[in-house]
Design brief:
Arc Repressor Mutant, subunit A, globular
Amino acid sequence: MENGASSYLRFLDGDKSGFVDVVKEYKDGLTLFINTIIRDIHISEEAANEVFLKLYVKKPRYKNQYSFKTWLYTIGKNTAINYIKKYRKTSYASIDDLCYISDESDIESDYIKGEQNLLIHHTLRALKAEYSQVLYLVYFEELSNSEIANIMGKTSKQISDLIYCAKKALRAELERRNENGQI
């Protein structure tokens, strides 16, 4: 059984440290995934916190039909959709810059990697939401097509087609940014 599932099951059995382990392991990735849907990092953080609050208070049963990450990200997707409905009529300013703070010795390498990730995140935001979601899940979360299909409510074939189109759109957006001197 994967680490997230075993930690969550420990929590359900009364071990509070299991919940802490789940939050530590999945908080950042879940927040960034939700941000591909909501497109506002502050609201995405709030939505991710709500997902963990649901787990803590309601304690839904995890069935190992899917991986724990797939199950958790599906809850995150549904929460994000609820947030979009809630905030649809309200306009918020988006944050263009994310800080990448390094506590490792190779600060220059970490800075370059952070800048590359920032460029990719900015470019993903320019794509259709569905494209940015699928690319984020493939490349940042390294999920399989079947796991992504479960999260996004599509078939594996639809996900394959979506990945192809999303890569094509990403390439075109990167070329456009390069021509305009944005890279």
